[in-house]
Amino acid sequence: MKLAKNYDPKLYETDIYSLWEQSGAFSPNDKGRSFSLVVPPPNANGNLHMGHALSFSVQDIAARYHRLKGERVLFVPGADHAGFETQVVYERELEKQGKSRFDYSREVLYNKIFDFVDLNRDNFQTQIRKLGASVDWSRYAFSLDPKIVKQAYATFKQMWKEGLVYRGERLVNFCTLHGTAFADIEVDYREEKGQLWQIRYPLSDGSGELVVATTRPETMLGDTAVAVNPEDSRYKMMIGKTVKLPLTHREIPVIADNYVDVNFGTGAVKITPAHDPNDYQIAQRHDLPFVTVIGFDGKLVHSVPETFRGLNVLEGREAILKQLEREGLLVGDEEIIHNVGHCYKCATVIEPLLKEQWFIDIKPLADNALQAIRAGKIEFLPQAKQIQLERYLETIRDWNISRQIVWGIPIPAFQNEEDPDDWIYDERVDQEVITVDNKHYRRDADVFDTWFSSSTWPYTTLDYPQGTDFKEFYPLSLMETGSDLLYPWLSRMIMLGLYVTGEVPFSKVYLHGMITDSQGRKMSKSIGNVTDPMETIAKFGSDALRIGVISGQTPGNNQPYVEAKVIGGRNFINKLWNIARFTEGVVENFKQTDAQPISAADHWILVQYAKTKSLYIEHMDSYRFSEAYEIIYHFLWNDFADWYIEASKIEPNPALLAELLRSALPLVQPFAPFVSETIWQTLELSQNSLLINQKLIDLPSGNEENAMRFERIKSLVNEVRSLLTATKAVKVKLYYHNEPDVASFATVINQLGGTIGVEEGEAGRGIALTASGFNCWLDIDQESIDRYVTHLEELIAAEQQRTKQLQERLKNHSYLNQAPKELVEETSNQLVEAEQTLEKLLDEKIRFAPRR
RNA sequence: GGGCGCUUAGCUCAGUUGGCUAGAGCGCUUGCUUUACACGCAAGAAGUCGGGGGUUCAAGUCCCUCAGCGCCCACCA
Questions:
Q1: Inter-axis angle of helices A384-395 and A362-374, nearest 10
Q2: Nearest nucleotide, C1' to the C-alpha of A279?
Q3: Torsion of the alpha carbons at A748, A750, A751 and A754, rounded to the nearest 10
């Protein structure tokens, strides 16, 4: 035997992967339709998690399936520098050494992070290999590779030239700890308890006062107005007057704006345009000045009254409240639940701060994307995500692409040292100052938002615009990624792809849900509920992990990681291995490929194979991978192993057995690539080809009539087994009368049914078979017959109910008139069968009743 | 406040266009050293498909409604 007693994944997986890789099987072949997908590049800074295992599994199944169909498959791997994410990870490393990012110059820090990421490269790629991902390593892309950066620049330049990118002073979401701004989408809002303070703002003319309500008293130093609702009778007469802003010498106007909710707080809102997004908008409507009071370090700035200078936000708040109280201006406070934005990494409260940044004018891009999506140019799995994306694109706001970190792609923009409004595009980002037309320009210190460069991924990885890959494989056939990336990444790939290439970047999107722990909680290091896919592989093998995450999986839905599913996969792999071992023991020559069906079982299994194959293709083509897996699983385990192999022990047809194994392996291969290739190689099922290159195999078709004969024998065997178990009878003979098929399959029936003989006889003692439609009976002893009578009652009850149901359906005139003819016909056939069975059962009961 | 999901056996989930006597894996019960496999074989038990209403000859599947759970967006200072 070439196949070992047990399949131990560890012994084969690495070698099999090398075999694939070195053979060039991962690169597109030269014929066929093209099928392309690009891996959503994982962060280069860490390890793969369960979500990656799922994502790679889905992608790899698709890739392998399309190779199976004879298509030329392009499957591009890559990694993302993940700017902010990685810098945060690295800063933690520095912290361990007692250092911080401030200890290094920008260049030195960049290089240190680069080395840090580079060190992880092998680790990261090894993990992808362990997952069995059949990616083309020769096309591996890293988001800081020159070709990617070049295209990111080209995209930025084009937008600049066409006025889609602008520099503006806006409120940005700023983390004062990390010292960088974020996009709106990156802010983590949480519901929190807070306090709403009421503060008196006296009218300048001494005619009274306004009481404003605020959760952020410290920002009052930057107030430039107080707003009330124009319809609010309490304040109507104050509109247009001014108030004395406490703690300062400024006077600010009372303005009217519909934004103010009469019923919230006091109905009067202090307006701080430089520190609140809503106030910012009001300020624009009313042309109010902007007064900054909080700096990028999170401290009150120099221009505030001396007592408050340099205090951080919370200290400032305390100090201001105390001062107000002293002056009798603090009316009171109440508790309030409100949403507060936090840095998604360090939980620091995000400060809205005014900052000059690069923005993308998103409206035109979003409109294009919407048009394409509504025109159905991209198919979404699950479909509901399309609507979600449309909603998002309808309300999307301009995109801030500047980040104040070092780990990223420097923004290729320079500012005139003499004229702050004079910005030029230039790619000489390795220089701090450049001279153009005798003017000195200083490089923008910021880098791109990582999502900006990664949103060019579908076309940059394919070497847009001149590359052959781009010409032959763009748009991508499939983009598979997590549902959580729908807004931050997918939407932007679509917008940028359309903008730059004029085409949608991919024609199909498959969005997987999150893998949670067994209780449905997000896997997280702090909870300690993380399962490392590499550990699962070590324990159960890569194929088992793949089956475990893929079975029962549907797009869009979260799914818990359940080890039992992995175990189920492992068991199936073991089954497959043993099918192969049995076959190996029977087949002398795997090179012979002209198998023909002889027995009824042969015909039956060929019919089953044909059904399996067509259903499999149907599910695979629709990305219902879990269902396709179930199809092949049951074919191999139930049809092939449980029935065909057992039957073939009696009527062997080694040539066909070999062919069946050879034809089934390509179908399993997407789900269990390692074990199926191991079998293929070990048994040398094909002289000089790898299973990974094998196309779908057609087998001779089975004869329906013969297949049907076996199907009936199968149900006879089932009935015999069932009766033997119910009656607990042992050493039983089966008799038949005038049943040629039973006569010719006597050995099969005897062996599979567990009787001790199948013989011709006259009906007499024993119990008649009722369900399978043969004139047969089991010769059992009196004690067993008594047990059978009880069993009979149950069978009769069930059959009566069934008969009644069918009769009622056929009595219904509307059903007869309106349901499809075939269906009605089927129902009447079912009724005839049910009635026959019932009749036999009742006869049996009459025969045995006197004994009760 | 708005949007999108989910609720089907003990557990985790499938169920495509309405045709289902509602499936799978794991678990459970009973019996098996049947030599490819105990990571197995055989036979079983287990669900009023969240509640209510409707459309239809027919509803797990479509519509309405209620309840519970989850996610996302927007945010009242």
A1: 150
A2: B77
A3: 140
* Confidence band, pLDDT 50/70/90 cuts, at residue A192: confident
Whole-number Å distance between alpha carbons of A379 and A443? 42
Task: Decide the pairing of beta strands A251-256 and A268-271.
Answer: unpaired
Residue A852: per-residue pLDDT: 45
One-letter amino acid at A665 equals L
Give the residue carrying structure tokens 């923008």: A444
Taking the C-alpha atoms of residue A192 and residue A560, their distance in angstroms, rounded to an integer, is: 29
- Pairwise CA distance, residues A187 & A182, whole Å: 7
Query: What does the pLDDT read at residue A849?
Result: 64
Residue A850, pLDDT score: 56
CA A79, CA A77: separation in Å to the nearest integer? 7
Strand B positions within 7 A of protein Cβ atoms: 3-6, 11-16, 19, 21, 23-27, 30, 36-37, 39-44, 56-58, 70, 72-77
Whether ipTM exceeds 0.90: yes
Under a CB-based contact definition with an 8 Å cutoff, are residues A385 and A556 in contact?
yes
- Cα dihedral A656, A658, A662, A665 sign: positive
Whole-number distance in Å between A823 CA and B17 C1': 17
- The DSSP element (H or E) to which A606 belongs, if any, is helix A600-621
Vertex A239: Cα angle to A238 and A240 (nearest 5):
110
A204 touches strand B (CB under 7 A): no
Give me the CA A766–C1' B36 separation in Å, rounded: 36
Closest residue, CA to C1' of B19:
A823
